[in-house]
Design brief:
Largest sheet: 7 strands, mixed
Strand order of the largest sheet: 8-7-13-14-15-12-16
Strand content: 15-25%
CATH architecture of the domain at 2-79 and 182-235 and 303-361: 3-Layer(aba) Sandwich
Bound molecules: flavin-adenine dinucleotide
Distance between the termini: 34 Å
CATH class of the domain at 2-79 and 182-235 and 303-361: Alpha Beta
Structural class: alpha/beta
Oligomer: single chain
Helix content: 25-40%
Shape: globular
């Protein structure tokens, strides 16, 4: 029998942050994690050649909130690092996101944009960029990523597509901090949960009857699985990842991530991990490590990555959420619990807010640094 005032399921950023804040306020907390490692989707490790790899896909940290930045700086130092991506088009490496200069070079200044209220992803893209650009960079990539026509996807997905200002070529130039934890994300999460009781390799859902959360259960796993898929499965996309070590090549591609928008190429992107490291460490590595990613539809909930952006899944999630809202002393949250793509800073910011809500509900006084 496991008993604690607060049982937190999941040792990712959401579970880790909530558990930390509760522990900082002298609460009795245990974390249960079904994987054999902590850090959830941001888990990283060191390849034999010395390169740091993000097991579940590349993670570029960016943040505009001083509260989130200060919170994380308790647990890790960061080095400045901004993601610069390219798309490979007809053998050429082109900047991604594209910038204003490039669009004008390719399509002039008089764009024939989609007019009216967009009803899907394709229309929303065509409302903000010339068709030529959409077809070169976005259509093939998106249809590969989701495995359906771009017209079947929600228009909100287009909010993530940005056009950079002239001469700007980084992925997230508008965030105040673009940085990577000095010793990786796993080390950062290890420090966040330091001193909190943790059980790895322990699936909460398979052991429910033996667990008592006296004050609250915080569940950061998939919401549909929590309810035993009673309304059906939420759809996700994931990536198959093939790792390749090239011992005799020092650099394979010009930047961390190269996208393949060509619909005839089954790969969606290649990551060259060295680019994510600070120069002084990078230069000591012999060879280079790549990860080739190819999208697929996972059935195993440990492989869930991107929530599917369409109406069917949105409605299905709402049904589960209504059930979750009726549960007393249970909070289902995080990227899998809320079926929502959160960037890391957003996941942490949301977790800080939820933890503040828990403290408030229990009348525990706290410094208002989390809201
Ligand atoms: C491919 C990919 C790339 C990304 N890249 C970026 C990026 O570049 N920049 C950025 O800011 N964000 C990025 N993100 C987002 C980032 O991964 C999330 O913000 C973050 O992982 C959210 O943390 P979480 O704790 O909510 O979820 P998770 O990290 O998934 O943690 C949930 C944990 O709960 C555990 N769990 C689930 N069910 C159970 C159970 N029954 N019992 C016990 N444990 C359980 C899981 O094993 C997992 O460890 C990316 C996401 C993906 C999918």
């Amino acid at each position: 029998m496991i008993k604690a005032d607060y049982v937190v399921v999941g040792a990712g950023l959401t579970g880790g942050t909530i558990a930390r804040i509760l522990k900082d306020h002298k609460q009795d907390v245990i974390i249960l994690e079904r994987k054999e490692h902590i850090a959830g989707n941001v888990y990283d490790y060191i390849h034999d050649c010395g390169v740091m790899i993000n097991k579940y896909g590349p993670h570029y940290f960016r943040c505009g909130s001083e509260k989130i930045w200060n919170f994380l700086n308790r647990f890790t130092e960061f080095y400045n690092w901004s993601a610069t991506l390219r798309s490979k088009v007809n053998g050429e490496y082109l900047n991604w996101p594209v910038n204003q200069d490039y669009i004008e070079k390719v399509a002039g200044t008089n764009w024939n944009l989609f007019r009216g209220e967009p009803s899907n992803f394709e229309e929303a893209c065509l409302a903000k960029m010339p068709k030529q650009l959409y077809e070169i960079f976005i259509k093939g990539y998106t249809e590969k990523q989701w495995g359906v026509k771009a017209t079947e996807l929600d228009k909100e997905l287009a909010n993530r597509i940005t056009i950079n200002k002239p001469n700007v070529n980084t992925l997230t130039p508008n965030h105040r901090w673009n940085a990577i934890p000095k010793n990786g994300y796993t080390e950062m999460v290890r420090n966040i949960i330091n001193g909190i009781e943790l059980k790895l390799d322990f699936d909460y859902l398979k052991n429910r009857e033996g667990i008592v959360a006296k004050k609250m259960l915080v569940f950061t796993g998939p919401i549909d699985e929590f309810f035993n898929y009673k309304y059906g499965k939420l759809n996700y996309r994931g990536q198959n990842r093939k790792i390749e070590y090239l011992h005799d090549i020092q650099q394979y591609q010009p930047c961390i991530q190269v996208n393949y928008p060509d619909s005839n190429d089954p790969r969606i992107r290649t990551i060259e991990w060295k680019h994510l490291m600070p120069d002084e460490k990078k230069d000591k590595i012999k060879g280079t490590v790549l990860t080739h990613e190819t999208p697929f539809t996972p059935q195993n909930s440990n492989q869930y990555e991107y929530p599917f952006p369409d109406k069917y899944n949105k409605n299905l999630y709402e049904k589960y959420k209504q059930n979750a809202d009726k549960l007393s002393n249970t909070l289902i949250c995080g990227r899998l619990g809320e079926y929502k793509y959160y960037d890391m800073d957003q996941a942490i910011g949301r977790a800080m807010m939820l933890a503040a809500g828990i403290l408030q509900k229990q009348n525990i006084s706290f410094v208002n640094e989390y809201n």
